[in-house]
Design goal:
The complex is a heterodimer of chains A (233) and B (305). Chain A is an alpha+beta fold. In chain A, 46% of the residues lie in helices and 23% in strands. In chain A, a hairpin with a 2-residue loop joins strand 7 and strand 8. Chain A starts with 7 loop residues before the first helix and ends with a helix. Chain B is elongated, with a radius of gyration of 21 Å. The chains are: A alpha+beta (233), B alpha+beta (305). The interface between A and B is medium-sized, with 22 and 18 residues. Strand 3 of chain A pairs antiparallel with strand 9 of chain B, so a sheet runs across the interface.
Chain lengths: 233, 305
């Protein structure tokens, strides 16, 4: 395991003035596990990535590299590769992450940034404020994360547990605000399951077949009489 | 009151009789901190009348109204220069009256007026109306002129898909992959494209960085770079280069202070510079003078597979 670590406080001190929040940030920040992600919401993804790359240019070791990939038009990964191994991924979103199980309004991301709080962090010689979502937005993001991934990734249950614990600690007015924002910004997706046309064909063809044989067995008048008596029952 | 910054593309056109002041005019345009020069293209019209008609075909006034205004152009040199720019802080105003009322950018109008005041031919010490420069009123005109010059994509050619790397528009044709790697490479191992003429044929050649006219300049041989620009600027070199610009870069450049990267692609067992030959030459010279290290972080662009 390599020892090289990015000085995250030094990096975030340089980008303090930019519009961003670190979402789901670890309480051990600025320490991080190798191969972990740092999820960041930003308002202007091009300017943020440009600035971050300029800072990482200074930090880049001789044997290290950065891998910048466009996952989507407003979703970029910057991987810091330390001597061939992934050290840390900056997972940067310029729009809401795409969820299948929950619709989130476009205005949510900029709202999270506008309502963000600052926390002062000290670590050795570095001291800086970082921006994180306020406690309500933090719960909504973790709840959305849990809903989206819990089936595929049981470890995402930690987000639900986190939401439970934190909700308990909220004041009454804050709990109200949580549900207000949840309903304001989210929506359940409409079902897009397609009903195959063959389903209808098979259903009605079998019904027609049934009555054809009944008519053949008992005749039309007897069949009509039977249907009539069943209806008046 | 806060005014929102809006940007758009514009162009300037130096007519034939303004060619003698081309460098000074380009310098004046470049001086505006809200204008980025994207492309300089020399053009030799086969028929000056046809060119004038094309330029003014998108004008707000009908062409017969412009006949007197453009009469003087018919006797000018057929060689003109187009300067395409990104206007980063558009200041649109209404101009003209009645059915000729239209929108122009006041920033562009001011630059144009300044150049005309300085370089329009004089008669009895007073500036004439035989304008040495023309400029666009709107982006549609820019798009039209680019198409006229054979650039089929029009202004889309200037729109970069990867904005955070400042990839110049002329590299878009490389069809860059979605993944970019940034790592240290040895400056002394880098190669670059230069333009050369052999037996009357102009072509590009790949040479080691230390054999480029740009490196010659930083090593003290200014004339080599000067002749290179004089020979190829406008026709083969379409970006904005000048001695003054390079001198300023040489005195102020700090690679680690800027948000830009030198862009390269794989070449043999090393890399070829796609954008940043001037900057790389400065860094190589600093390395030779032992004032910096031999390796620098560059962005490696990969062609799509």
């Amino acid at each position: 395991m390599n020892e090289k670590r990015l000085e995250l406080l030094k990096i975030f001190k340089e980008i303090f003035k930019m519009d961003y929040v670190i979402v789901k940030h670890n309480e051990n920040f600025p320490n991080y596990e190798q191969k972990s992600d740092l999820d960041i919401f930003v308002k202007d993804i091009d300017e943020f990535v440009k600035k971050l790359l300029a800072i990482l240019k200074l930090e880049l070791g001789i044997n290290d590299s950065l891998r910048v990939s466009n996952k989507d038009i407003k979703h970029i990964h910057i991987d810091y590769i330390c001597e061939g191994d992934l050290d840390l991924r900056f997972d940067i979103y310029g729009q809401n992450p795409w969820y299948e199980k929950l619709n989130i309004k476009l205005s949510f991301l900029s709202g999270v940034i506008d309502r963000s709080e600052q926390i002062l962090i000290k670590n050795g010689k570095f001291k800086t404020a970082i921006k994180i979502p306020d406690k309500i937005d933090d719960l909504i993001i973790r709840y959305a994360e849990y809903l989206e991934y819990y089936e595929a990734r049981p470890d995402k249950l930690k987000h639900l547990n986190y939401v439970y614990e934190k909700l308990e600690l909220l004041e009454k007015v804050e709990k109200k605000e949580f549900f207000r924002r949840l309903h304001l910004y989210t929506d359940l997706p409409k079902s897009t399951e397609k009903i195959k046309s063959s389903y209808f064909f098979n259903k009605y063809f079998s019904t027609i077949k049934f009555y054809y044989y009944r008519i053949k067995q008992m005749g039309v008048s007897k069949l009509m009489s039977k249907i009539y008596h069943k209806l008046i029952k | 009151m806060v005014r929102l910054k809006k940007n758009r593309f514009d162009y300037f056109l130096i007519w034939g009789h303004g060619q003698g002041y081309k460098d000074e005019i380009i310098e004046l345009i470049n001086k505006d901190e809200n204008i980025d020069i994207l492309r300089i293209q020399d053009y030799k019209a086969q028929n000056i009348r046809k060119l004038v008609k094309a330029i003014y075909s998108y004008d707000y006034a009908p062409f017969h109204h412009l006949k007197n205004k453009t009469k003087y152009l018919m006797s000018t040199n057929k060689k003109v220069t187009f300067i395409f720019v990104r206007n980063n802080f558009v200041n649109e105003i209404f101009k003209g009256i009645g059915s000729y009322m239209h929108i122009e950018c006041n920033r562009i109008v001011k630059i144009k007026k300044n150049i005309r005041d300085l370089y329009n031919p004089k008669k009895d010490g007073i500036s004439t109306e035989d304008h040495v420069i023309h400029a666009s009123d709107n982006e549609e005109q820019v798009n039209y002129i680019l198409n006229y010059l054979g650039v089929n994509q029009g202004i889309d050619i200037f729109r970069s898909t990867i904005n955070y790397l400042n990839i110049p528009y002329h590299l878009k044709k490389i069809d860059v992959d979605n993944i970019t790697v940034i790592k240290h490479v040895k400056i002394s191992d880098l190669f670059a494209n230069i333009i050369q003429e052999e037996n009357g044929v102009v072509s590009t050649k790949i040479v080691p960085l230390h054999k480029t006219p740009q490196y010659d300049f930083v090593s003290g041989n200014v004339n080599a770079y000067k002749s290179y620009l004089n020979k190829y600027q406008g026709e083969y070199l379409k970006d904005y280069y000048s001695i003054k610009k390079f001198k300023t870069l040489l005195n102020t450049f700090n690679y680690y202070d800027s948000t830009d990267f030198i862009l390269v692609e794989s070449y043999m067992s090393s890399y070829k510079i796609l954008d940043g030959v001037h900057r790389a030459s400065i860094l190589l010279h600093k390395y030779c003078e032992r004032t910096s290290t031999d390796s620098i972080p560059v962005a490696i662009l990969n062609k799509k597979k």
